Amino acid sequence: MNKAILMGRLTRDPEVRYSQGENATAVARFTLAVDRRFKRADSQDADFIGCVTFGKTAEFVEKYFRQGMKMAAVGRIQTGSYTNKDGQKVYTTDVVLEEVEFAESKAAQNASEYKQSGSHNDFKPEPSSAVGDGFMNIPDGIDEELPFN
Question: Which residue from 23, 72, 108, 120 could staple onto 103, CB 3.0 to 4.6 Å apart?
Answer without folding.
Answer: 72
